[in-house]
Amino acid sequence: MTPSTADRGAELVRRQALAAAGGSARTLARRRDEGRLSARERVEALCDPGTFTELDALVRGRTDNRPESSRPYGDGVVCGHGLIGGRPVCVFSQDVSVFGGSLGEAYGEKIIKVAELALRVGCPIIGINDSGGARIQEGVAALARYAEYGRLNVRSSGVIPQISLIMGSCAGGAVYSPALTDIVVMVDGTSHMFVTGPDVVRSVTGEDVSMEELGGAQHNAAVAGTVHYVASDEADALDWVQCLLGYLPDNALTPPPVYPRPGRAGTAGRTGDADTGADQLTDADRALDRLVEEGPQVAWDVHQVIRAVVDDGDLLEFQALFAANIVCGLGRIDGHSVGVVANQPAVSAGVLDIDASEKAARFVRFCDAFNIPILTLVDVPGYLPGVEQERRGIIRRGAKLLFAYGEASVPMVTVVLRKAYGGGYAVMGSKHLGADVNLAWPSAEIAVMGAAGAVEILHRRELRAAEGTLDAARLRKQLTVDYERDALSPYAAAERGFIDAVIRPRDTRAQVRAAFRSLRGKRSAPPIGRHRNMPL
Q: 283-448+489-518: which CATH number, 3.90.226.10, 3.40.190.10, 3.40.50.300, 3.90.180.10?
């Protein structure tokens, strides 16, 4: 007997209900007790209410000789598209209640399909990862999907924003896709990411290590540098991603959204100019003058300068726990997104080392890929000397930062606050490396090295001859004063056109605004070639 229309409708409802139910009720209950959301609840919390449309909800695994109960609808991953802040996104969310979230053939194909959709339409792709790895019973078919999605990550790199949320386990082959994405967020205490787990490490190397020590959020953020933000809980992670998307364009061919300047109305979300009226000096602006008075050796916090320059004093910082001697993050100036790169004098005097160079290089390339102008704040004594740094490859790895700035074509404005010594001056967004506007405070010290070292080298014979005399200390002091006056001021660089203007610290915000405003029409054609060969 042919089923009636009502029967067909009832069958659809039955299958949809099975797909929406998820997997193990016991697993879902335990996770709720831990304060963790289900795969669907995470998607619903991430997207604007009522905007998520699921794709492939009725897909099932294809392994032969398995009972119906072992082939759940959806195959363990929720995929689809929706809106965040009224803008389109594609999302997948792994469901740990179905086979532990393990990736099978159909599961992998679903992820690839929604990621291809994101690339095709030009919108961000957000992956919510919570998986035990590859589905062993599906063998090489599961492994193939890891490689296929990895290739798609590469094709999408620099074309659409790719964001990974780690909200549970992410192990083995599953870790490489998040590592290829632009942004990785982990939840503290409940998420882990490692290539091999503690049991394997123990059996192979004899090392006894916990999951948290090996692949917890704090380790991946502070030591490995894999993670851009450590969230306190799942709600914090989802909120951070929603905030991040407000700074980013839909894809590399569109500009980031423009928002009204503080206290202004009527331009939210538009891509034209925000208000460009005259600046009024604020207490935060005037406070910058007092930083100069504290002297060149005082280890003040560069966040004070950043807060004075960006709209509302807001900075969405990346990798705050890793290489803290350099600060990277997104803010807004005149309502337009900007990437901020700043040496941090409060940590290791703001020196450049391997980790700081790689952190900043990755961030500069991210900004350049997505049409985000770059503001560089310089207070750097140079590269960190030492046997350990040389052995770890500071020549090759430190060169990545120079490569990133040299390759960038977005508007770039640099402000030298205090020290800009040696290779640190050249690498940190110098005029010679392609920056469009270079400014300096009167306190800027632009030179090959600081006064103490330079005097020892330049006046070695005079100092040696004066050793043991009453004039030795006076001579050293006078030579230091002369060097500081003649070589350490910003004016020698300004006379050669390497600095476009020397400005009062209180005028920094106004000058930076004016510079970026003048650069909004910048056009830069990339050189011919397949791609650049970065010193990886």
A: 3.90.226.10
